[in-house]
Automatic annotation (TrEMBL):
Residues 85-96, 107-117 have a biased composition (Basic and acidic residues). Gene3D superfamilies: P-loop containing nucleotide triphosphate hydrolases (3.40.50.300), Signal recognition particle SRP54, nucleotide-binding domain (1.20.120.140). GO terms for cellular component: cytoplasm; plasma membrane. Pfam families: SRP54 (PF00448), SRP54_N (PF02881). InterPro entries: AAA+_ATPase, P-loop_NTPase, Signal_recog_particl_SRP54_hlx, SR_rcpt_FtsY, SRP/SRP_N, SRP54_GTPase_dom, SRP54_N_sf. The gene is ftsY. Involved in targeting and insertion of nascent membrane proteins into the cytoplasmic membrane. Acts as a receptor for the complex formed by the signal recognition particle (SRP) and the ribosome-nascent chain (RNC). This is Signal recognition particle receptor FtsY. It is found in: Cell membrane; Cytoplasm.
């Protein structure tokens, strides 16, 4: 009897000791996780987006066509002389043939009264000719343009806002070791809040889970390495990221590259056009700018200012003139002046305006009467998140977008739209806007971008 009691006491002591020891171990593990997390949070903020080189440019022309383009472009500059309709493209107004006009709303019945440019009463008579060259062509830059090296240095740290939210919380979660389901939910939420979208988020989380099963990740450095790898892989694409803005030859004659810049209002089209002109001029190129945003006089004025600062001709029309006519004349002038690049800034009403989208398609068709459009850059504002993606889809239906420019990355805690837009449209992000300054345009590089996100 007494030996039974002895053994009961021994077992009870052993159980008590085991409970105490495992409790201590769990408490210690938690302390380590928290310490590692704190280490991540206290990381200095130095080092931001720093692309390894300048903006990569490629010649236009058939051979430089990007692989993911959904449909082949019409043949380049095969027609030497413009067709009759092109000689007076301003008369090719949509309102006379019952087609939607620029500014029409999809919700407005076609047979209701429509506001057209003909109804606009101008206070004073304006010049006769529609499109005209305002600044004579010149090859010398008027303003000193920052060298690519200096530019990249100055762009450091511009992504600090994105980094603090996105990268730091992900690193904090993954750096703590084994993740329970709640922690995985937090990882998912962080990715969704950074605008990566449901599909991309699921892909990234699945990949992270696989990798975490395969390798032990215990420190913040290991977590960073894993995240860097998975996020960079998610951004990679086979598509060419060079901007096709260099001249090429057609039938032995120099042909300027033609670049259309499209996007909705306020995304930064005009600013991007001006910044790109500076990049080209800084590399010794000559540029003609086409102010095909004829709905807002200020937009043409803004582009003209960029042109004057950089030393590029600007072709613009009267307010309300046919954007296709202006684009056509800009390309015509570019060819006759023998410049390297014609950059056409287009109008950007909301994408729900069917008239605008028709007009944009028309701009491209009319331009292609005399020269191939080598690059169609769609400008998206990173701060608009999912809405930017919706815009991109609509533009891609109307015009073959060949590259994305993501602007205002300096002003957002998000930036995940980069991941989605490439995947969904099959179009590479080629450039990023990192500020309002004239040289705040950088090439998009997945590795550098992820570096900046993770800090
Ligand atoms: N912070 C920041 N601001 C930018 C960037 N790119 C453009 N902006 C600003 O965004 C505003 C709109 O830029 P615009 O170039 O006029 O935009 P837009 O698309 O041409 O607009 P519309 O002419 O109205 O169609 C301006 O105040 C620009 O300075 C960028 O990368 N970062």
């Amino acid at each position: 009897m007494s030996s039974t009691w002895f053994w009961i006491v021994v077992v009870a002591v052993v159980v008590l000791v085991a409970v105490l020891v495992s409790g201590l171990l769990i408490a210690r593990k938690r302390r380590i996780s928290i310490a590692e997390q704190r280490e991540v949070e206290e990381k200095p903020k130095g080092g931001g987006y720093a692309a390894s080189g300048g903006i990569s440019l490629a010649p236009g022309g058939k051979t430089a066509e990007a692989p993911p383009e959904p449909s082949p472009e019409p043949s380049p500059a095969a027609e030497p002389a413009p067709e009759p309709v092109v000689e007076h493209p301003v008369e090719d107004r949509p309102e006379v043939d019952g087609q939607p006009a620029v500014g029409d709303d999809a919700a407005v019945p076609r047979d209701s009264d429509q506001r057209t440019v003909r109804d606009v009463k101008l206070p004073e008579p304006v010049e006769e000719a529609a499109p005209e060259a305002v600044v004579p062509g010149t090859v010398e830059p008027i303003e000193e343009i920052e060298s690519p090296a200096g530019r990249l240095e100055r762009l450091r740290g511009r992504l600090s806002k994105s980094r603090s939210v996105f990268g730091q919380s992900l690193l904090g979660l993954l750096g703590g070791g084994d993740l329970d389901e709640d922690s995985w939910q937090d990882v998912e939420d962080t990715l969704l809040m950074a605008d990566l979208g449901a599909a991309t988020t699921t892909q990234i989380v699945d990949r992270l889970r696989d990798e975490l099963n395969r390798r032990a990740v215990r420190t913040s450095a290991e977590a960073r390495e894993l995240l860097h790898e998975v996020l960079t892989a998610s951004l990679s694409t086979d598509a060419e990221r060079s901007v096709r803005a260099l001249p090429h030859e057609v039938d032995g004659k120099k042909q300027p590259a033609v670049v259309l810049v499209a996007g909705v209002n306020g995304t930064g089209k005009t600013t991007t056009t001006g910044k790109l002109a500076r990049v080209l001029v800084a590399q010794g190129g000559t540029v003609v700018l086409g102010a095909a945003d004829t709905f807002r006089a200020a937009a043409a004025d803004q582009l003209q200012t960029w042109g004057e600062r950089v030393g590029a001709s600007v072709v613009r029309g009267k307010e309300g003139a046919d954007p296709a006519a202006v684009a056509f004349d800009a390309v015509k002038q570019g060819i006759s002046e023998g410049v390297d690049t014609v950059l056409v800034d287009t109008a950007g009403r909301l994408h729900t305006k069917t008239g605008l989208m028709d007009e944009l398609g028309k701009v491209k068709r009319v331009v292609e009467k005399q020269a191939r459009v080598d690059e169609v850059l769609l400008v998206l504002d990173a701060t608009t998140g999912q809405n930017g993606l919706a815009q991109a889809r609509v533009f891609a239906e109307v015009i073959d977008v060949t590259g994305i420019v993501l602007t205002k990355l300096d002003g957002t805690a998000k930036g995940g739209i980069v991941f989605q837009v490439q995947k969904e449209l099959g179009v590479p992000v080629k450039l990023v806007g990192l500020g309002e300054g004239p040289d705040d345009l950088a090439p998009f590089e997945p590795g550098a971008f992820v570096d900046a996100l993770l800090g």
